[in-house]
Design goal:
The protein contains nine helices and no strands. The model has no long low-confidence stretch (mean pLDDT about 90). The chain has a domain at about 80-220. Helices cover about 70% and strands about 0% of the residues. Helix 4 (about 75-100) packs parallel to helix 7.
Length: about 220
């Protein structure tokens, strides 16, 4: 029903009511994505339309997340998660092309395999652990496939003798730190009323900035 799209979402520690600005830090911290996009687009280097497209997508991620953390309703959540999912899968394709040198058809097949594996990752873990991992991780388990892919591509790139692999692994470590901030938001709420989700935004903006910069440095496949 249409009314369900307007159902409130109260998933974050900082939000204590339905007001538009009930999550000020969570909302404002999304500006970091816009700053990251701006810095990537203003860098005076040789043209790279693909990298520029990812920079614009980072800006969209920031705007979508800000919308969700102000309106906090079901439909706004889609504005938050869809651009993120698009970035993850599109960047995986790009990484296979630029860091591992795969052909476009092979990279596309690899991306489809990654998407399928990511879709079943949490259900399989749930079956094995017999624990609601989504609740225990505050939803961060959904990003585990992206983290594993980042480290996997980084290690494979190093194996092929490419320096970019080290950068990807370093960015992966930063991504784990950002996921930790996201995961601890609910658990630390009793002692940190503002939560830690805003720190996820700041760190993740740095992660996305680093990923696009690494892809730009690697150059077109």
């Amino acid at each position: 029903m249409a009314s369900e799209w307007w159902e409130p979402v109260r998933d974050y520690c900082e939000r204590t009511g339905p007001e538009l600005l009930a999550e000020p830090l969570n909302a404002v911290s999304n500006g970091a994505f816009v700053v990251a996009a701006f810095l990537l687009l203003r860098r005076g280097r040789s043209p790279d339309p693909v990298a520029d497209g990812f920079a614009w997508l980072i800006g969209v991620i920031g705007l979508g997340s800000a919308l969700f953390h102000t309106l906090a309703v079901q439909w706004a959540m889609l504005a938050d998660v869809i651009p993120i999912a698009l970035f993850i899968h599109a960047y995986f394709f790009l990484a296979l092309r630029r860091f591992l040198g795969l052909s476009a058809p092979a990279a596309f097949a690899g991306t489809l395999a990654f998407a399928a594996a990511a879709a079943v990752f949490e259900p399989v873990l749930l079956r094995l652990a017999e624990q609601p991992l989504g609740l225990l991780s505050n939803g961060s388990v959904a990003y585990a496939p992206a983290a594993l892919a980042l480290f996997g591509v980084g290690l494979a790139s190093l194996r092929f003798g490419k320096r970019d692999g080290g950068a990807l692994i370093g960015i992966g470590v930063l991504f784990l730190a950002s996921l930790t901030a996201r995961t601890l938001d609910a658990a630390l709420c009793p002692v940190l009323p503002l939560g830690t989700h805003w720190l996820w935004h700041l760190l993740n903006a740095c992660v996305l900035f680093g990923l696009v910069r690494a892809a730009r440095r690697a150059g077109p496949a």
